[in-house]
Amino acid sequence: MGLRMAIGVGTIALLVAACGGGGSSVQAPSEDGVLRITSYDRQDYDADAYEAQAGTVRFEFSQVGVQEHTLLVEGLEEQMRLVVVDGNTDTGSLDLPPGRYILYCDIAGHRASGMEARLTVN
């Protein structure tokens, strides 16, 4: 029974790791200063954390797949809400002082299933 338990726990750990989010990567803005974020049908962004420089942060939000997703900055929802569906791209910008922010999708159930990421503005 001990071996079966160990195999079962190992299998579950592998499945959880395989179904995880976009990884633990931190994505910095590109050389042109645009913060490019990609969303996927598995209800995830392409990174768990992003970095940007203080000032006007330009966002380019794209989608791989067909499921609708949004990109909002917690606390600044009235200033910017980007929407993508069917492989489209949406753009926007925000004036952000240095600090830590949360990016998320406000489609029902998406944030609860892990569709959020950190944004550090330096």
Number of helices: 1
Q: In which order are the strands of the major sheet placed?
A: 1-4-10-9-6-7
Q: Which percent bin holds the helix content?
A: 10-25%
Give the strand tally: 10
- Give the low-confidence spans: 5-23
Kindly identify the CATH topology.
Immunoglobulin-like
Q: Assign the CATH architecture.
A: Sandwich
Describe this structure in words.
The chain has 122 residues and is mainly β. The protein has a single domain, classed as Sandwich (Immunoglobulin-like), CATH 2.60.40.420. It contains one helix and ten strands, in the order αββββββββββ. Strands 1-4-10-9-6-7 form a six-stranded mixed β-sheet, with no helix packed on it. A four-stranded mixed β-sheet has the order 3-2-5-8, with no helix packed on it. A hairpin with a 3-residue loop joins strand 2 and strand 3 (44-45). The longest helix has 17 residues, at 2-18.
